[in-house]
Amino acid sequence: MAKIKLKYPPDEVYFKKVTDFDLDVGGKPLTVRFEEDSNEGHIHYMVDSDWTHHAPDWIIDLGEEDGELIFERTLWDNLSCMGMNDEVYTHEDDEL
Question: Which of 15, 37, 49, 56 has the most CB atoms in a 10 Å sphere around its CB?
């Protein structure tokens, strides 16, 4: 028999995580996939039963700011801490 003892807290060297989210965006259904690893993250969109990096036009129409889609920034900033049926807005009321 051998005794195994963890001497130090684990040191994560690399991670990769892929998560699908089914959303309601202004009354329209949308499935997005977050693909994250230790270096970067990407959002994929389910369009016509296929995954794409390109946002649908109606998502692009929500606007851009500082070279990024407002919709995508809102997702990155909020989605990981949201629970089912929580809501978040892409714009303040007076911006619409």
Answer: 56
Alpha-helical runs (H) found in 23-96: 57-60, 70-78
In Å, what is the CA distance from 50 to each residue of 16, 47, 85, 92?
21, 5, 25, 32
What's the Cα-to-Cα distance from 64 to each of 1, 31, 46, rounded to whole Å?
61, 20, 20
Rg (the chain; Cα; Å): 18
The per-residue pLDDT for range 3-36, each reduced to its tens digit, is 999 899 999 899 999 999 999 999 999 999 999 9
Do strands 64-65 and 50-52 pair parallel, antiparallel, or not at all (unpaired)? unpaired
